[in-house]
Write a structure and sequence with these properties.
Blueprint (H helix, E strand, L loop, with lengths): L6 H14 L11 H40 L4 H10 L6 H10 L1 H11 L1
């Protein structure tokens, strides 16, 4: 009895992945094994970088707050310490936004905790 192979399903599976790699350079878009490896590696990078994105933004916010705080005569660590001592609960994202787009509001926050 001949061997039964479900070519419809396997071809559909391959077509689905080759569709995902559309636009890749060279054989990465049309050679099955290369495309599969490339796509899998891309998924690993995407997973890793979703975590790194959070770190990068926190780092950016800290740099922006530090730059604005130094214009007010404080360092970043001194400002955060004063905020904690005065029970001002404002997160770094909002502080960075104030420092970039609303300097007068940032100055008011600094004056309140000084």
């Amino acid at each position: 009895m001949p061997r039964s192979v479900n070519h419809v399903a396997s071809r559909a599976r391959r077509k689905k992945l080759l569709k995902l790699t559309k636009g890749y350079f060279g054989s990465r878009k049309n050679v099955w094994t290369v495309a599969k490896n490339t796509w899998e590696k891309g998924q690993q990078y995407a997973y890793r970088d979703r975590k790194q994105k959070k770190r990068n933004f926190r780092s950016l916010w800290i740099q922006r707050i530090n730059a604005a705080a130094r214009l007010e005569g404080l360092s970043y660590s001194q400002l955060i310490n004063l905020l904690k001592k005065n029970n001002v609960e404002i997160n770094r994202k909002v502080l960075a936004d104030l420092a970039m787009n609303h300097q007068d509001a940032f100055k008011a926050v600094v004056e309140k905790v000084k």
